[in-house]
Amino acid sequence: MSNWFPENVSTFGGDVDSIFWLIFYITTVWFFITEGLLVYFAFRYRRKPGEKAAYVLGDTMTQLAWVLVPLAIIVVLDVLIDIRGAEVWAKIKGQPPPADVTVRAMGKQFNWGFTYPGPDGKFGTEDDLQIDNDLHVPVGKVIHVILTSKDVIHSFFLPHARLKQDVVPGREIPAWFQITKPGEYEIPCAELCGFGHSGMNGKLYAHSAEDYEKWRKERWPEGAQQTATKG
Amino acid sequence: MSSETSHAPLGFWRSHVFSTDHKVIAKQYLSLALFWALMGGSTAYLIRWQIAYPDSEAPGWGYVAPDVFNALVTMHGTIMVFFVAMPILLAAFGNFLIPLMIGAKDMAFPRLNMLSFWIFFVASVVLVTSIFVPGGPAAAGWTGYPPLSAKMEYTGVGWGMNLWLLALALEFASFLLGGVNFLTTAMNMRAPGLTWFRLPVVVWMQLTAAVIFLLSVGPLIAGAVMLLMDRIVGTTFFLPEGGGEPLLWQHLFWFFGHPEVYVLLLPGFGIILEVISVFSRKPVFAYRPIIYATIVAGFLSFVVWAHHQYVSGLDPRLAMPFSITTIIISVPFAFVIFSIIATLWRASITFSSPMLFSLGSLGVFIFGGLTGIFNGSPPVDIYIHDTYFVVAHFHYTLFSAVFFGSFAGIYFWFPKMFGRMMNETLGKIHFWLTFIFFNSVFIPMHLVGLRGMMRRIANPMQYEFLKPLEPLNQFITLSAILLLLSQFFFVINFFMSLVRGKAAERNPWQANTLEWTTDSPPPHENFSTTPTVYRGPYEYSSPDAEEDWLPQDRPLSAPRAAARQEESS
Amino acid sequence: MNAETATMSGAAVPPGKTGTWWFLASEIPVFGGLIASYIVVRLGSAGWGESSAHLNFTLALINTFLLLTSSMTVVMAHAASEESNYRSVANFLGLTILLGLGFLGVKAVEYTTEIAHGFTPASGIFWSFYFGMTGLHGLHVLAGIIVNVVLWIGALKGSLAQNSHRVELAGLYWHFVDIVWIFLFPLLYLA
């Protein structure tokens, strides 16, 4: 079943998956208990000639306990799920680790426009590069993406990184990720954005260190002295 | 009772078309909703065909273009929620049952009731019209997020979307007036002896749903006015270039949208509780706590809405508070579910069609409720938001109430509504086919979502990572077609029984509630004399009675009456 | 007292009144939603004080006075209806209607002046809210005027006597419309 998910190649993807599995195991147990009881009671207590149903109102504490105790257990499990979930949420959507590479991503009808700051590491300067569709990043480095939209709401979705963030016009929303394995990964749009929504797709190129340098040298032949990776 | 009950018989138009009789109005809502169900089912067919066999010709229609696909998903959601679920569960069942179950002649405001239906009719006409105007119908999803929905250029849809907003506004007005009617009727017109806690659960559920709707729809009405103004007048409520805020719509929408799902759910729960009690010959377990739990859930439904917006651009710090409220709201519902299961314990169960649908509804709801926990967890939602996992989740919870619940209600109250019995064999076939095909559509859909397939895309084959889903999507589509075709057993049964069904007696199910004390179908003004109520609605297998049922309006026997007098003095 | 005697009624409130209260309860979130949106969006952005400076405070003050007075006249109409003094009911309803029309007239003057100066609904977010909120409110005032006119005609013709409780219900609605204005006025004109 874990092979069913797209291959996880991000540092926090495993954390997301682990909360999924936590919830999965808890809910599966409850599923079998509740549905099992339902089916068992339906079968066991089917009408038999000469047998009357029991006049049970559920208005005493002993009777209600049968419902309240499982309820209490559920509350405890829910709290557990929430606490574990909060940690992962804070890691992904809270204060991000310092950026090694920063890119701007703009959703538009119907593709992604990526703006690279170039060797000077600043946006809005001459060496900025704007490419549609392709996001090139180095593997093993923290990538910050500043997300915005040109027109309608889109959603920046990296299934292989377990990352999703809606992009909203008029806002700049930060997101971050770190890829663990070189490869090409799709960046579909995950929010209905018009008749071209289906097919709106970008590509994340996660390069090994040398390939990334090669890519940078191709793009910025002159400004090679200061790499965008800080420090 | 009073001489005003008799008046000259009304002509065809006044008694069948422009009627103020709640029973006629209920049937009018039911008929119109069944028409819309056909339309909604057709949209589902086309959507599924396109997904499974992208860009091929759907039999009976042809090629589904991308913008048409967007219109289809939009109309599917809009039709099913507002023009099928609401009219059947609230307007049809609420209208039919409330006056009968409280022993009243009709609603508190019969003419307002008639007006409510006709406003809904006009809303339907407006929505149908929106399909045929230049630019086509609304295509920004049933959720209509701006800026996509706020500017014509973004979708190419012009009047179609404006009419969509107008149709919704009219629908809201219709149900607002209906809600006012339901609540006033229940507050003021209960038969003597019918205290609040002797009301059937289904009435409580209808009333709670009415209150929730009344208090939650306002912000969306405001939002719809704002969106319409953005589109027509040039305001910029939701357009950032004019200083507006796209996310504002989402808050207004979901502030209503979340309570709305409980507005749909509660009547379904009510129906299955009634049916389960009758066909288990047992009282509803924990009747009063169920009502309290439902009311608490009603309150809580107003503070969970942003769980639809975790990755929307909302301040991430808000995710956990809403996640907590979302968890809390699952508690009263779990209570209700467990109590329903407890009602089956030591019961004496008859597997009639209504009972099968009720048990099916319960089973389906449990599954849907459990998948809700995945969606409610913010980190998991990062991945599954806007994927088919969400779609699978809400189809489980909605089908539970709207499909299985409605069918349970229709099979159960058909004899009372139409004076004839439905065919049991066809009913059972209908149930099993529906249950099997429903699950074969929507269980695999969870897997499709977990693979990452996004919502509202017309062609998953355009994405490498989704290519492995082709066989599964095709399986789902074929199951969906079979599910739709299975509904013919219901349609045939319904119409055949209307014409040739066995004549129904007053109380074919030997049930306790007041609607079963009058004729099938009830005459105009329902009861020849106003009933008096002596007990709650669930005295099944009571030690006080020889039979396994004890109607609410049967007077206490003399020795019992004397004992009661002694107890209370 | 034996519960099994009379029809059970929640609080012995006549159906029309119960219905009207539920209706008003549903209207509150409509304006509540708009007002909350206005507050939240306004708190989150700058420059609104600038825009609101272009509104005519004096006219709005007059309008507030007109509506408050009309709430008083509608109460007088209700009192008259309790005494079955339908001449008086008609007079006070008539006054209420005039004051309501006055309110709408002043708003019309405001709107035309603003638009003439280039401030239209498309002039930015403040103006979107201003025209949206006062426009929706104005439509509600108009609806109230229509209801009052119908009752006024009934009072003049004498047919109102059969349904005299409707004066109170119309009054309840009118007070609601007035209260919404009491919120809109400071939010738009004073802040």
Characterize the structure shown.
The complex is a heterotrimer of chains A (231), B (569) and C (191). Chain A is an alpha+beta fold and 231 residues long. Chain A has helices at residues 13-44, 61-93, 209-219, and strands spanning 101-108, 111-116, 129-132, 134-138, 143-149, 154-158, 163-167, 173-177, 183-188, 201-207. In chain A, the strands form 3 sheets. In chain A, strands 3-2-1-5-8 form a 5-stranded mixed sheet, with no helix packed on it. Chain A has a 3-stranded mixed sheet with strand order 4-10-9. The model of chain A is unreliable at 225-231 (pLDDT under 50). Chain B has one domain: Up-down Bundle (Cytochrome C Oxidase, Chain A), CATH 1.20.210.10. In chain B, 65% of the residues lie in helices and 1% in strands. Chain B has helices spanning 12-17, 22-52, 66-102, 110-132, 152-155, 159-188, 201-232, 246-280, 287-300, 319-344, 353-376, 378-384, 388-418, 424-451, 470-500, 558-568, and strands spanning 57-58, 62-63. Chain B has a two-stranded antiparallel ribbon. In chain B, a hairpin with a 3-residue loop joins β1 and β2. In chain B, α7 (201-232) runs antiparallel to α8, α7 (201-232) runs parallel beside α9 and α11 packs parallel to α14. In chain B, 64% of the residues are buried. The model of chain B is unreliable at 1-5 (pLDDT under 50). By secondary structure, chain C is mainly α. Chain C has one domain: Cytochrome c oxidase, subunit III, four-helix bundle (Four Helix Bundle (Hemerythrin (Met), subunit A)), CATH 1.20.120. Chain C is 79% helix and 0% strand. Chain C is built from 6 helices and no strands. Chain C is globular and about 60 Å long. Classes of the chains: A alpha+beta (231), B mainly alpha (569), C mainly alpha (191).
